[in-house]
C-alpha cells in the first residue's frame, strides 16, 4: 500500500467529508480515506497497482473540490 496526502480546497462541513470519503473509498484499490477539515487535507492509503493518484484526484474534483498538487 502507498499513502498520499492531498491538499483539498472547498471542504467546509461534514457533508463535504462524507462526499469525499464515500467517493474515494468506493474506488477499487483504496484501502482507507481520512479527511481533515481543519488542515484541508485528504490522506489516502491505496494499492498503486489498482488505482492511480490521478484517479483519486479526479474523483475528488468530480465532487466539486479543488485539489492542490
TrEMBL record:
Give the primary localization class: cytoplasm
Native source organism of the sequence: Bhargavaea ullalensis
As for subcellular location, the record says: Cytoplasm
Q: Which residues form a coiled coil?
A: none
Q: Which CDD domains match?
A: HMA
Q: Which UniProt keywords apply?
A: Chaperone, Copper, Cytoplasm, Metal-binding
What sections of the protein cross the membrane? Answer: none
The name this protein goes by in its record: Copper chaperone CopZ
Q: Which NCBIfam families match?
A: chaper_CopZ_Bs, copper ion binding protein
Family annotation (PANTHER family): P-TYPE CATION-TRANSPORTING ATPASE
In terms of Pfam families, this protein maps to: HMA (PF00403)
Start and end residues of each HMA domain: 2-68
